Please model this.
Amino acid sequence: MSAITQVPVPLARPGVVNVGNPYGLDLTTRPNAQGIIDLDAGGAESTGIDVLAQSLVRRQTMDHGSCIGCPDDGINVFDYLGAGFTPHQFAQIQDDLTTELSKDERVTSVAVSVAYNQATYTLTLTENIVASVGPFTLTMTVSQSGVSAVVTAIGQYT
Model:
């Protein structure tokens, strides 16, 4: 008979900042088999900078006003696929994404660059973000088949 060991999980508590885990604990979201952002099928949990990064990905893949309690949040980057882009439109997308990401109180500053491959209808967003715990880069690739996101930490996180 095997023994069951309980491992305490650090939970976020209002008014208490855990320096080692400043963003608390959340359920993991990632692209499912259809490329749609959804809860992890195995119920995996995320901590640290991953909590913020996943929140920012969701913010960019939901329709404006579709989140209960946040009627002014959301921008759906899938809406940009298949569009013909002028330099002015690229600048507008960058401004729109910068505005949307800046709505998150954990984001101190953000710089967004956009690249579009007309042949494959693939949009690549490179977002250099300075968060309350330090800088990181979030790179999102958006295509008709879904979205993928990669977080690259810059500097050191505790």
